[in-house]
Design goal:
By secondary structure, the protein is α+β, with helices and mostly antiparallel strands. It contains 13 helices and 6 strands. Strands 1, 2, 3, 4, 5 and 6 form a 6-stranded mixed sheet that branches. The relative contact order is 0.10. The C terminus is likely disordered.
């Protein structure tokens, strides 16, 4: 809330410090310092797509500029707000500029910090602006099958809840939303069309502890045949950003492929908030 006021000089930094304290002022001022990355991009310092090494230097510069990782989190939220607003009011060239910065710098930063909720929306909005036809095509394919998919997921959730309860595993089971950017990426990397994706139908299981994660996994594999090469144990081998979860894909009811993610509530909290849940962490 305060960063835009400071950015537009609607509030003085001294007054900000007096009214809200030095800690809040330092966070807001840190976010403004990160705006320099936008200035670098506007001056042509941001490289063209594909020059990964130079982009990585920019990302590392951003992380090096801050003493408190919460500044990065606030900057990501601030950038997301600006990107949302850009869809309504900015020129096409301004939207395109923001979307490139999102795709190349801010979405990868959100990924690095494990802040998945921000990462997915940043990626989806960037794709919507940069590749509107691709975005609309995938959105249309999702919508065409939405009712069938929702009915299918409801049945899977009910079945899985019952089996977990009978096995004495306390769990929350829910359908997992699909993100258009991730669908697009998988279609590209795996060379598949929409119908060939195994995880358009997906559920998430939240349990109390690690032991229950593996017990739930065993139950899922006993219920349905797992798909070969589609199991990832990010609990035994966490991702670099400390993402923890079990991912498996199975041939579910009606012979349809289904992705199941299994994690503890604490792991889920971390996947949503990333290092914000442990803000003193330094990369």
């Amino acid at each position: 809330l305060l960063v835009p006021l400071l950015r537009e000089s609607l509030i003085d930094a001294t007054i900000l410090r007096q009214r809200f304290g030095s800690r809040v002022a330092e966070l807001a001022e840190g976010v403004l310092r990160m705006d320099q990355i936008g200035a670098l991009s506007a001056r042509g310092a941001a490289p063209a797509a594909g020059q990964g090494a130079q982009l990585e230097i920019l990302r590392k510069m951003l992380l090096a500029m801050v003493q408190d990782v919460r500044v990065v989190l606030i900057k990501l939220a601030d950038h997301l707000c600006r990107l949302r607003a850009s869809l309504r009011k900015d020129s096409e060239s301004r939207r395109h500029e923001l979307a490139l910065l999102t795709r190349d710098v801010f979405a990868p930063l959100a990924n690095r910090l494990g802040v998945w909720q921000l990462k997915w929306e940043l990626e989806d909005l960037a794709l919507r602006i940069l590749e509107p036809e691709t975005y609309k095509r995938i959105a249309r394919l999702l919508d065409e099958k939405r009712q069938d998919r929702e009915r299918y997921i409801e049945n899977v959730v009910a079945l899985l809840k019952g089996e977990l309860a009978r096995s004495g595993i306390v769990a929350e089971v829910s359908g997992r939303p699909k993100h258009i950017a991730s669908i697009h990426r998988k279609m590209q990397t795996k060379g598949l069309d929409f119908q060939g994706l195994y995880d358009v139908r997906a559920v998430r299981v939240l349990v109390r502890d690690v032991k229950d994660c593996y017990a739930a996994l065993g139950l899922v594999h006993a219920l349905w045949s797992p798909l070969p090469k589609e199991f990832d144990d990010y609990i035994a081998k966490p991702k670099a950003n400390n993402y923890l979860s079990l991912h498996t894909a199975v041939i579910g009811p009606e012979g349809k492929s289904l992705e199941v993610q299994i994690r503890t509530h604490e792991m889920h909290e971390h996947s949503a908030r990333g290092v914000a849940a442990h803000w003193h962490y330094k990369e």
